[in-house]
Amino acid sequence: MAWIALISHRMRTLLTMLGIIIGITSVVSISAIGEGAKRYVLKDI
Fold this sequence. Notes:
single chain; mainly alpha; 2 helices
């Protein structure tokens, strides 16, 4: 039943998946940038 709904609404499914991927990528990127900045600052001390 769920697969039928996903297949019948391809554009909505694609946009939802794209939003999830962008969100996860953003969180990981911001976390990595923050960790890198922290290490850079601590290295200079």
